[in-house]
Amino acid sequence: MSRRIVIIQGHPDSAEPHFCHALAQAYAQGAQAGGHETRTVDVAALDFPLLRSQREWQQGDLPASLGEAQQAIGWAEHIVLVFPLWLGDMPALLKGFLEQVARPGFAFKPVPGNPMGNKGLIGRSARVVVTMGMPALLYRFYFRAHSVKSLERNILGFVGIGPIDETLIGRIEALDESGRQSWLARLRRLGREGH
Length: 195
Fold this sequence. Notes:
By secondary structure, the protein is an alpha/beta fold. It is built from seven helices and seven strands. Helices cover about 40% and strands about 20% of the residues.
């Protein structure tokens, strides 16, 4: 069954290619080979301000540079987020992007007296792909994958996205060519499956 998939490349450095770029590209190649429609959002290539107040988030206009990205998220049935773990969390640029596009009226509909509102992105699934320097098992079990869990619960889940799967890739600097090719093959397979 064909799916509409948006791949959000969350690595903040667009000056040179990183393994996150190769992973996103491998997923896209697999998805296209599997007959899925894909769109890609490269967060580092977008120019947008950070939000500085609740009022701006609730009542301000979405920056014109993010209109296509927000439309791609609305169009998608499956969302793939790819980013490196920086200081234990997603890079600030990706967080700023998510704050901008997940505005009231799009990602959820405010309901008076109900702090949860109506979730605006129900019916979409997601995969979170994270690279990191530490071993993935250490991050998952010792640190309890706290930032990925926060992303899943407090951002993606809050707006109705689910189920959410994870691909955690640890010891990224220590991966040899064989290890990198193995991960790229896994991402191509996940893309073909639309998962």
